Amino acid sequence: MLQDPAPDFESVREPGETILWQGRPVFWPFALHTLPILVFGAIWGFMLFGGHIQFGSAHGGKSLTGLPLLFTMVMDGIPVWISLGYCAYVVLVQGNTVYAYTNRRLMMRGGVFGTSFKSIDYDRIQELDVVVGIIDRLFNVGTVRAFCGATTQKGARIYDRFVSIPDPYEVYKGIKGVEVDVKTDWNFPNAMRPATNPGFKTAYTPR
Predict the structure, then answer these.
(1) Residue 55 CB partners (closer than 8 Å, separation 6+)
(2) How buried is residue 17: exposed, middle or buried, by Cβ count under 10 Å (0-12/13-18/19+)?
(3) Distance from CA of residue 131 to its chain's centroid?
(4) Level-2 CATH architecture, domain 7-24+95-189
(5) What are the respective helix, strand and coil percentages of the chain, to the nearest 5?
(6) What is the pLDDT of residues 108-167, one digit of tens each?
(7) How many CB atoms lie within 10 A of CB 125?
(8) pTM of the model
């Protein structure tokens, strides 16, 4: 967990908004989520290399050289280059990724050369859960997912995620507690509240 607010979070923080938790993804489980794609790229590469050898054997030991070989490796090896590029991207983006939740919203920062920022107000969250995979268990981390109603063209759900964070269940409980409190405060008129709690304009103090 980070002690000081990330500069990008500090610059977009609204008046009265308090960062209640902030953290980064753990490097190795975050990077190892690319393992299936990397394995696919390696298998494709071996198949491409094996096909090149078979081509040479079928033509009296003469293999492609020069520009024909370069063209073949580039075009036929596109899945390999895509998988390697994606893995490199994930490794680079990890150092610039920060997650946080406040008394108003969830916040996510990412990007490699530039910085991307996303926030999610609590009223948009429809479902919240925790996913702990095999790799996550090895490093005692997990992923907290928020579903806000977005889907792909085929109907698959699109989640906003805090990926590979320590203590995922504690973070989940913290977000869930704030979400319930904030939604309750928004759904009930301020006039119906006691004078000691006039509504959401007061400072939120988690239990």
Answers:
(1) 63, 64
(2) middle
(3) 12
(4) Roll (2.30)
(5) 45, 25, 30
(6) 998 887 788 999 999 999 999 999 999 999 999 999 999 999 999 999 999 999 999 999
(7) 20
(8) 0.74
